[in-house]
Design a protein that fits this description.
- The N terminus is likely disordered.
- The longest helix is centred in the middle third of the chain and has 30 residues.
- The chain is α/β, with parallel strands linked by helices.
- Helix 2 runs parallel beside helix 4 and helix 3 packs parallel to helix 5.
- The protein has two domains: 97 residues; 99 residues.
- A seven-stranded mixed sheet has the order 5-6-2-3-4-1-7, with helices on one face.
- The protein is elongated.
- It starts with a helix and ends with a helix.
Amino acid sequence: MTRKICLTILTLLLFGCKPGDMNFKIRYDRIDGLKQGDRVLFEQNQIGTVTKVLYTAEGRYEADVAIRKEFASAATKDSEFFIVSDPQQKDKKAVEIIQARKGGTALNDGEVVEGSAAKVSDVFNVFRDKLNKGINDLGKQFDQFLNELKGLSESETVKKLEEELNRLGEEMQKSGNAVQDKIQKDVLPQIQKEIDRLREELRKFGREDEVRPLEDKMDKIKRL
């Protein structure tokens, strides 16, 4: 019991409302045991704390949260705010912030957003379905792209590869980690093979420098 009290006090000291923190409110139909002092998580890291929980006159719950200013970009109009079991503190709850997509409009200080008191399995299933659909669509688009390369001249292939690299770069910037991993591990190696093959073909005519812009784009995407 003493250890739990000490952990709660330490959390409030480290992550309690401080000047410069971003503060906002999350409304829930139920809170499943969420309390003041519980953690706010993003990508498995604590970025803030619940500073107050109250029951409103409208018959709903409202949780005040404060997150450190350097993590303010995690809370956007596209973010979801789930109540989950705290993975590191047994018998405690936490607010988990999950971004459906990267970027998005940041919340304003003091803004009120809607949350979801969902079980971990429910959260996982929703985002797994969205993620799998995105990855499958990406694979289909790339397979179609490889088919389009067949029969094209070297110059047309260079142009097509450049367009595809531009598209993948944009996809990387707006997608989550799983889609980025798919591009890095599965898609880019295949494009590299196409670039290598194209370089050998163009070398026969002394035109291998034409693939250099493609290699530069590849390097930029790999660094994203």
